Batch of 3 targets.
Target 1
Amino acid sequence: MAAALLAVGCAAEVVRRRWRGDWVARANRELDVRDQVLRQEAPETVDLRFEAHRLRELGDPAGALEVHARLLAARTDALGAEHPQVLLTRFNHAGHIWEAGDRGGALAAYEEVLADMVRVLGEDDPDTRWTRKVLAIRREKAEGAS
């Protein structure tokens, strides 16, 4: 009996490691693609990203939103509206809208980007699933506040 349990445990560990290895490999490939896209960005766009982050950290959500809007426009112009990096930038922009206090506008932005992610990336894409989860959490918070 102990030998059977040990064999099952070993088999489960092999499956777990193989699954983890596949997941890590997929994550590394995705990061390589994102890094490549970001390395090809114009320096001005990179500056906008850092400036939006800086303003957010300093507690200026309105300023961060304004700068992030310019970042979103620049990325959309450079990469196209359906590029995965632009979709992620739109997701982040919805977060800036939320932090600036426009709950309704943020929820609408999350819904729009989620619909586009489903269409472009598919239902099972990790970014699509994450966007759906964040939208549900933000809806709950918005409903609880009213």
Target 2
Amino acid sequence: MDSGESAPGETGRPLLHDLGHRLGELIAALYPDEQKRPGYARLSRMIRESTGGTISATYLWELVTGRKRNVTLEQLGVLAEFFGVPLEYFVNDEVTRRVTAQLALATALRDAKVRHLALRAEGLSPASLDALLTIVNEARRVENLDRVGKKVHDAGEQPDRHEDHRP
């Protein structure tokens, strides 16, 4: 229902049931350290300063917490501009999945060790990359973390096709 349809029992308003969750994810991606995350008043001021658009701190809080969903297209545009995502991120599940996968990658690459590991893996053969993924998946299993690659494939991206790279 990402086409603006209403859920059964709603009064014809666009279905923005995940708006709060999506905004929360964007804030967390931009400010992963909760201790350093700006409050809604500061975020509101930052949005105004960077985009020229105005969204009050209270209204921003209401959107993030799901208390309000009656956001205008103009307000969505301001939020999209501030967070650097396409406007469709807020209303199209496929775009949301794609952007979320990109945000997860960007967040992971903030860690210097993850970046170093990824850079060191560049140029390895498909067989070596498969072996490394097996090792990482096993380490993630031992630490009770999601399997690497599962979220990427769920996010609508195609899995690597190693057989296409072989001579």
Target 3
Amino acid sequence: MVIFLDSSTTTLHFIKMLSRFKSLQFISNGVLTASLLSEFTEAQINILGKTVVKKRISINGSKAFNDPLTY
């Protein structure tokens, strides 16, 4: 199963609960979201885009939208 998680603080609050599920893949535009997923889950994690938006800890805009992911 592939799940997209954004960079919101709400998402950060339930990442620990996702650790009980196996065989998940996550796609996110959140740098902190991806970091916490890698710490608390065994899932494959892909992060969109190439440039971090300053002071937002996320990757936004056309680079993230057009990023080709293989999953």
